[in-house]
Amino acid sequence: MERDKGLNSYLSAMVESHSVESIADRIWRGVRQHLSCIMATVALFFIGHTVSADKSPRWVQSYDAGYVDANGAFAGGSEIMHLAAHRRKLFAANGYWMDGRWSIPPEGQKQSAQVLRLDTTDGQWQVDLDTGETNEFGLEYMKGNILKSVTFARDASGNLLAQPQSLLVMAAGARFDRGGAVSAWVRSDDTGKWHHTLVRHGSAVGGVRWVPRDMQVYRDKVTGIERLFLLLGNPGVITGVYDPKEPSKIRWARNTEFPFLSRGAFRSRPLGMIQANGSLFFSVDDAIYRRVDGQRPTWVEVINLGDDIDTDVGGIRGLTSAPNPNGEGDSLLFAWAPGGRSTSQIMRLDPDGTGGYSRHDEVAILDLMSRRLDVRVSYTLAAHNMMYPVRHPTTGETVHIIGFQGNIHGQDHLRWNGSALYGGAMYAIRRNDGTYTLHEVNNAFRHDRTPLVSPRAFCLSPFGDNQLFIAGHDSSNRISDDMAWVFKAPLDVVLGEQSAEDWTAPRRDSPVEPRLKDGPVYELRTYIAARDRFQHLTQRFREHTDRLFRKHNMQPVGYWVPTEGPPISKRTFVYILKHPSRYDAWKNWVAFNNDREWEQVLDQPVFQGLLIGKPESVFMTLNDYSERIRNKVQSPGGVFELRTYTASAGKLVSLNSRFQNQTARLFVRHGMKNVAYWTPFDVPDSSNQLIYLLHHSDRRQADASWNAFVSDPEWQKVSRDSQRDGKLLAEHPRRLFLRPLEFSPLR
């Protein structure tokens, strides 16, 4: 129609013209031009479709962690937690669990969780938010726990807004000494700035975990007030309202709505929240709760599966609404994962017409995976987030995509190296009739590929190209440097309606800071045993721990107990390990803690609950003069003395020089043997501390040697001369006399 109008306008103009050229000629020339334009458009159409027809669909890796973006920010991560489409862009929340940049930062600054941004379907992901740099409290956030685009239609009083307000919200949890906190960041789409709010903080005593896992905007049917409901973790549910006066546009409540103050916290983390049948639901442990609206709202239990759960796994996962196959309303869909014995049974709750729900078991993901791979599967974990709904392009029905992972036995070449986990990213497609099919991101996993392990986030492309983005990786207590990933493929490929070529681009090596690879590195560890449990702690080391240390390339230097001090010193256990490097130390500890034999040791009742608090650990590098001045301990016995000096600002070099050139020699003169001298590896202690170990024939001789040393005229002159420009020590040295245990290498 628009082309016809244009041609008519052109003809009219020609008729009105008084040019020398004839009207007929002008008409014919205009027609030819118009037809040429039409033919060119048609030709381009067919050319484009011919190219598309010849070009086979393929999987494409959109994000491969481990690079510096266009603005100089490091884009990494071990896991992509969530994907969210917002304002025609795609955002991803990543995390650094089991990533070296979080676990062993070379200069003491941990890399906090980020939000990444993709502006075009084939563009490069950019860092849009760094949580460590954007909170004013110095808190460190390991994961971007929940990321959603939420829309408010009403203000804090329940009045309609002039136009709905869509906000991109990310919430994350942080832990600190005996406490925890949940923060929320809201993006200003005009400026690209994220506004931070510390939503709530409190105690972490008793295993309370501040881990926000989901959020939903919901309007109370009685009061008309619209709120954003946020799951805080064990502390419960908190709400916020839209407030344009707040920098973040969200004003959070001071108290949790549920559980109430009288109930305390949940046993584990709530994992999912949805709207269905006009109500708000959330899942926690083995139960699902429904909100009863009103001025004083309550929450009622919809179902309780009555089973024990693993707090790390969470019980009911992936809570989602789906069309009711047996009548009107919405069914509740979820995966049941009761800890280590999880088969990821998909369950469905159908409304029974009387306000209740009837339960239906659909399928166990474990069985589907076992049949697909033709191996024994001992464990599966499904639905990290909600089961993603998408409209099937052919049938028009709503299907659900469910990501999962599983431990396999047999076909070891299909495992993620060092674990029992299948190395591929497997997911299930659920149809409304309750049938399931299994598929994999980038097709079937092969041993020569980088493991993907667990698709956990799905999102339709906001770029109008009919692609579906899938993201994930689950670190599962294994080292996962730069293993976060995002893939994309056409929707019909993801749904299994069409095959696609693999993405075969080689993966980049994850760079490790050179300082982390230098070695050797020594680790000084201190344990305090629970009352009446010291003998069991030393028994565990004697019978199991020492051998397993050696198995995992950790070389024990010595095991000691204090010879004196307050009563708690009688329950103190000190030891030193030698590692090839700081990075190797981390890898070795991960392997040690994941060792099946070690897990069996910890399962023995006699070896449980041995310690008070967390062990203290100090990584140290051997000073360059240590080997030259070392005196060999020739016969077992005697006592060791561990001393820690804190140097005045800028005086550590001078302090070490004094030990190297004079002090160590004078120690030997007075009957003390130099064993080793170290500097702490990590900042800030690396700039001002000296740690060293001496040996004495016995405790009486130690006192006599020190008295003779400090009375030595040469030492007195050395001490005066070395401190003409100021004191070398900022505080009095700390010392600990130690007795080696009978199984100590150094004794």
Give me the secondary-structure category.
alpha+beta
Could you give a short account of the major beta sheet? Answer: 8 strands, antiparallel, barrel
| Mean pLDDT reading | 90
What is the CA-atom radius of gyration, in angstroms?
Answer: 33 Å
- Count of β-strands: 39
Distance between the termini: 96 Å
How many discrete structural domains?
3
CATH topology of the largest domain, what is it called? Answer: Methylamine Dehydrogenase, Chain H
Give the overall shape, derived from the CA principal axes: elongated
Spatially, the strands of the biggest sheet line up as 32-34-33-39-36-38-37-35
Look at the structure and name the CATH superfamily of the largest domain.
Answer: YVTN repeat-like/Quinoprotein amine dehydrogenase
CATH architecture of the largest domain: 7 Propeller
Helix residue percentage: 10-25%
- Number of H- or I-type helical stretches: 13
Explain what the structure shows.
This protein has 747 residues and is α+β, with helices and mostly antiparallel strands. It folds into 3 domains: 2-54; 60-494, 7 Propeller (Methylamine Dehydrogenase, Chain H), CATH 2.130.10; 523-740, Alpha-Beta Plaits (2-Layer Sandwich). It contains 13 helices and 39 strands. Strand 6 (114-118) and strand 7 form a beta hairpin. It starts with a helix and ends in a 7-residue tail after the last strand. The model is unreliable at 1-54 (pLDDT under 50).
